[in-house]
Amino acid sequence: MATTLRWLGHGTWSIDTGKQKILLDPFLNDSPTAPVKADSVEADFVLVSHGHFDHVADAASVAIRTGATVVTNFEICEWLAKQGVKNTQPMNLGGGIDLPFGRVAMTLAHHSSVMPDGVYGGNPGGFLLTLGDKKIYFACDTALFLDMKVIGEAGLDVAVLPIGDRFTMGPADAVEATKLLAPKRVLPAHYNTWPPIEQDANAWAARVKAETKAEPIVLEPGGTIEL
Q1: pLDDT at 1 over 90
Q2: Is residue 187 one of the residues assigned to a domain?
Q3: Report field, pTM of the whole predicted structure over 0.90
């Protein structure tokens, strides 16, 4: 069965391998663009890139309801444990772990991280997932950085990049990131949730197509692709 990648709006993604369901950065109940609410998603694993509310808001409730294991940095694991989350897998930048669905490596991200209650959220990160013979890179919230070239040397099937600007890379830098990463396909995220991060994703996709070898794919919230 092919792995399916579904955008749930903003920075939230659902990955269904056919055997396990993985939820990335669950922000659903308070998201104006999410097509589903937190009580309707299933997850065996929840990945959290950093502590900002728009990436961690529903992590505890989903993990508690489903019994999912949360994979994130040590500090966020400790914070979630105090919210009642029983199963966590702590890690940090540059590290990787093998899980039933494949391998997760936590990559560098240039951003900030603080929990919704003001507690320090550890280092922000992205994720490089190895699912069988496929590799997916979620840059999550980050600025452009040159080491993306090293991440791309893994041979990426899909890269997911923020294009919202203001708090992350904007469209122009996301085009440059695509050049460094050299993925087969690239998808935008973290845009059009609120007016300050409104962007024309189709215009960005046209630049990607013209300036890189990657295939740009623009999804609407709820949209899916197969790997």
Answers
A1: no
A2: yes
A3: yes
